[in-house]
């Protein structure tokens, strides 16, 4: 399900510090990735979407596919980075509380919500107290609660942080399985997973929008063009040489392929450099930078921009 | 979502009910009960006259718990004095009691003196007669009470709790009690010569009956205690509930899912429930305690002959404490990141103490100017909190109570309106 996030002149200050300043934004997507360095304004934007700021910005709106205006209490669910559960009550009581609030039935999770309880393996945790849960388990509980409340938009802060490969895969599968009925706004540093999940992204830098749009547009905007070199005789040697010759580009080796990404990339120069060390038929293909590479370039540039200020 | 639904959904979890309502309620009731017991005891002690003292000592003689515990309910025989002798043995001189009737018992007393046969023990007979059976005068015998008398010092060594109780009781014996009763009777006679004392001062609506003011102060302390605990539950606990949610990380998802208005509405529902439950239990308890304290001829109407005065006082007192608590709470919130933030809580208390000191100083001087200054201080919010607290005893003009109440309520409304966002300060931080 696609939602449209829009705002005009959105400014959020914490004291004298400007946490968010967005002049204009319109973004559509089913799974929207919120990306950026720590302190870029991702959590503040989530709070703004959830109407959790002391002075809620009126221009910020989320609309469903039929143009319906979403409100946090009626259409949204939220899972914070730390998860959330009272330390001194059991998981069953906490889940029951949410079910009573949202479905008027504290046993809803045992009936209609059983799927989520099984998918996120909550059943073995039901008797445990909040304080007995690990951070990952707390997050799983809050994620399950989010799905149980049947939101139209589910905002999740760092859902993959601290999860092992298998759990990351499982959570990603659950999100993909629900994308028809639920939209997601996910803040994450796991670019590999977000590239697989998201169809739109918003990249923030120091509270400002660095870029926004489809994943492809975002990658292009952040990283420029990309060349993929295949069939190289010695990809490692080629990679080292290109790194030395193209300091402004991001050069990385992916198995027997070499990826070269950069805003000022001259294909002819790259071709001549490749030919100079490999005359046995290495091929150059125009590709697209991965989200991981694009964000690497962006963060490197962001650090460089921030360095003089520090 | 209705705030009531959210509040009652939270309270249906037993643990949350205990943490949010039950424990603070029990603690508050315990505080009020302890305060009632202490003030009642203090008031009764201050109001005691010679006949009451006589009755009290009579009751104690008949059924003193300590005596009953140690000696039972049979009276002891007159005190027997046993002066020990030294007899030669193969190991040297040895002290022995003068006969089998003087065989030492644990609950006897002993006087350790250098020369047992020459020592004059009549003062000790006066002290211990009726409390122990035998007084051993010896050099080294050792029952549970041993009084060692040297040339320049006297000390007592007690070797059991029962013996300690007996020694304490003996120090307050019938002779001492009779002296106390005689002194109190003398004081009562002197007081009777002057009758009730009424203090007059400029700026007071009527004279202050100093004899009645002790009871009045007990009523004031208990009513003020109720107001303070209720406000503490309302304001401080409102923050506690927020902290409880924030500490568990449940604040943001809960507020997001229910909406800010509903969530904060639910917090106020919980707060009102706490305060209502407290008042429902504490007001009857306090009224009962005050009624027990007053003589049968007296009643609250005697202390508050004008109902308007009681109502005005309650309004002025409650709004005054509410304003002080609100300012302290907001100051604490707004400056919570500063090292000395804790000091901000005491700013209203500091102003209150300053006002009370100035107000007290006006009694030293005479004249209409100081009466006006006194009324002016009483009428001011915060500065006049102390004088307002004791207003039923000191009878300021009713107009002063009205001005204080109105000014305080205006300031209270202004403070709440201007600082609403600070009550949600947690959201800034999470």
Give a nutshell description of this structure:
Chain A is of the alpha/beta class and 310 residues long. Chain A has helices at residues 42-49, 72-75, 91-103, 114-119, 135-148, 165-178, 191-197, 215-223, 235-245, 267-277, 291-309; strands spanning 3-14, 17-29, 31-36, 61-63, 76-79, 153-157, 183-187, 200-205, 208-214, 225-230, 250-254, 257-262, 283-287. Chain B has helices at 3-11, 14-46, 50-63, 65-71, 122-128, 161-171, 174-194, 210-247, 251-258, 260-293, 300-303, 307-334, 341-344, 347-361, 368-379, 385-389, 391-394, 398-418, 425-429; strands spanning 80-83, 85-89, 92-96, 109-112, 134-138, 145-149, 154-158, 198-199, 208-209.
- Estimate the strand proportion of chain B: 5-15%
Please give the most extensive interface between any two protein chains, plus how many residues each contributes: A-B, 38 and 32 residues
C-alpha Rg of chain B, in Å? 32 Å
Give the terminus-to-terminus CA distance of chain B: 23 Å
Give me the strand/helix succession of chain B: HHHHEEEEHEEEHHEEHHHHHHHHHHHH
The SS-based structural class of chain A is alpha/beta
> How many E strands of chain B?
9
The average pLDDT value of chain B, as a whole number, equals 82
Distance between the termini of chain A: 42 Å
| DSSP, total strands of chain A | 13
Strand fraction of chain A: 25-35%
Shape of chain B: elongated
The pLDDT mean of chain A sits at 86
Can you summarize the main beta sheet of chain B? Answer: 5 strands, mixed
């Amino acid at each position: 399900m696609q939602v449209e996030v829009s705002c005009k002149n959105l400014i959020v200050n914490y004291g004298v510090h400007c946490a968010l300043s967005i002049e204009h934004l319109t973004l559509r997507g089913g799974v929207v990735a919120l990306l950026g360095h720590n302190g870029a304004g991702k959590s503040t934007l989530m709070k703004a979407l959830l109407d959790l700021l002391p002075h809620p910005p009126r221009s910020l709106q989320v609309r469903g596919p039929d143009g319906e205006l979403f409100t946090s209490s009626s259409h949204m669910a939220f899972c914070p980075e730390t998860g959330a559960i009272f330390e001194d009550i059991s998981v069953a009581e906490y889940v029951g509380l949410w079910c009573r609030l949202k479905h008027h039935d504290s046993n809803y999770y045992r009936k209609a919500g059983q799927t989520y309880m099984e998918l996120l393996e909550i059943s073995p945790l039901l008797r445990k107290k909040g304080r007995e849960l690990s951070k990952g388990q707390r997050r799983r509980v809050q994620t399950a609660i989010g799905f149980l409340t049947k939101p139209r938009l589910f905002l999740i802060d760092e859902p993959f942080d601290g999860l092992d490969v298998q759990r990351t895969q499982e959570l990603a599968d659950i999100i993909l399985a629900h994308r028809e009925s639920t939209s997601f706004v996910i803040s994450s540093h796991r670019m590999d997973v977000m590239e697989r999940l998201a169809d739109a992204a918003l990249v923030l830098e120091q509270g400002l929008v660095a870029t926004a749009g489809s994943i492809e547009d975002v990658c292009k905007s952040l990283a420029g063009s990309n060349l993929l070199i295949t069939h190289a005789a010695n990809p490692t040697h080629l990679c080292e040489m290109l790194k030395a010759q193209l300091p402004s580009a991001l050069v990385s080796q992916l198995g027997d392929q070499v990826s070269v990404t950069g805003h000022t990339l001259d294909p002819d120069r790259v071709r001549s450099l490749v030919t100079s060390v490999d005359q046995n038929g290495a091929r150059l293909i125009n590709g697209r930078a991965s989200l991981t590479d694009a964000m690497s370039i962006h963060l490197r540039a962001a650090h460089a921009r921030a360095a003089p200020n520090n | 979502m209705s705030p009531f639904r959210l509040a009652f959904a939270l309270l249906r979890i037993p643990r949350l009910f205990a943490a949010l309502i039950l424990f603070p309620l029990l603690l508050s009731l315990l505080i009020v009960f302890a305060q009632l017991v202490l003030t009642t005891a203090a008031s009764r002690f201050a109001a005691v006259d010679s006949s009451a003292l006589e009755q009290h000592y009579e009751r104690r003689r008949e059924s003193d718990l300590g005596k009953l515990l140690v000696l039972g309910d049979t009276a002891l025989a007159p005190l027997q004095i046993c002066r020990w002798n030294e007899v030669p043995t193969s190991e040297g001189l040895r002290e022995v009691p003068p006969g089998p009737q003087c065989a030492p018992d644990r609950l006897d007393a002993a006087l350790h003196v250098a020369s047992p046969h020459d020592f004059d023990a009549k003062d000790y007979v006066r002290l211990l007669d009726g409390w122990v059976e035998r007084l051993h005068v010896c050099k080294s015998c050792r029952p549970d009470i041993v009084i060692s008398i040297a040339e320049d010092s006297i000390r007592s060594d007690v070797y059991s709790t029962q013996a300690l109780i007996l020694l304490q009781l003996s120090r307050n014996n019938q002779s001492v009690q009779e002296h106390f009763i005689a002194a109190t009777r003398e004081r009562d006679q002197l007081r009777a010569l002057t009758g009730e004392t009424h203090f007059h001062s400029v700026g007071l609506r009527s004279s202050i009956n100093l004899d009645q003011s002790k009871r009045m102060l007990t009523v004031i302390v208990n009513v003020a205690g109720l107001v303070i605990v209720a406000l503490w539950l309302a304001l401080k606990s409102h923050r506690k509930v927020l902290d409880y949610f924030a500490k568990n990380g449940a604040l943001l998802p809960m507020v997001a899912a229910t909406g800010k208005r509903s969530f904060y509405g639910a917090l106020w529902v919980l707060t009102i429930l706490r305060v209502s439950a407290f008042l429902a239990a504490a007001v009857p308890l306090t009224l009962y305690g005050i009624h027990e304290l007053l003589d049968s001829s007296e009643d609250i109407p005697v202390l508050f002959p004008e109902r308007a005065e009681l109502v005005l006082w309650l309004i002025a007192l409650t709004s005054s404490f509410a304003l002080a608590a609100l300012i302290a709470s907001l100051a604490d919130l707004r400056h919570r990141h500063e090292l000395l933030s804790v000091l901000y809580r005491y700013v209203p208390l500091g102003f209150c103490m300053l006002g009370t000191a100035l107000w007290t100083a006006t009694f030293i001087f005479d004249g209409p100017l100081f009466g006006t200054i006194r009324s002016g201080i009483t009428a001011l919010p915060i500065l006049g909190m102390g004088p307002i607290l004791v207003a039923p005893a000191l009878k300021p003009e009713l107009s002063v109570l009205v001005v204080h109440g109105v000014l305080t309520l205006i300031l209270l409304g202004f403070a709440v309106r201007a600082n609403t966002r600070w009550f949600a300060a947690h959201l800034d931080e999470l």
